[in-house]
Amino acid sequence: MARPAILQPGQSYTFRQYFEMVYEPEDILAEFGYGLRRSPLSLPQSTTDLDRLDNLKTRIEESLPYISLTSEAARRELLIAPILLDVVHYTHA
């Protein structure tokens, strides 16, 4: 059975409108013939002792399979807030 279209033909969408949609990112990308692959990033490393980093990474990775990140609130609370709290811890700012 074919799934119903998410995007309306001939309709233009703003960047923000895609984030306001209640569909999974994988489903929206499929409308354009693309897929989504989630994988770790390799970013520059700090020489500062980040004593909370392993715990933060573990908590986020454990939660990702169970939480949909379709809403801004979910992304903010699961991903951004814990990171910001640790930034405050390390920078005392």
Describe this structure in words.
- It is a single chain.
- By secondary structure, the chain is mostly helical.
- It has a domain at 49-93.
- Helices cover 47% and strands 0% of the residues.
- Helix 3 (53-63) packs antiparallel against helix 4.
- The model has no long low-confidence stretch (mean pLDDT 90).
Helix coverage percent of residues?
40-55%
Total strand count, please?
Answer: 0
- Give the percentage of residues in beta strands: under 5%
Enumerate how many helices there are, as a single number. Answer: 4
Features:
elongated, mainly alpha, single chain, 47% helix, 4 helices
What is the gist of this entry?
With 93 residues, this protein is mainly α.
Strand and helix layout:
Elements: H1 15-20, H2 25-31, H3 53-63, H4 72-91
Helix pairs in contact: 3-4
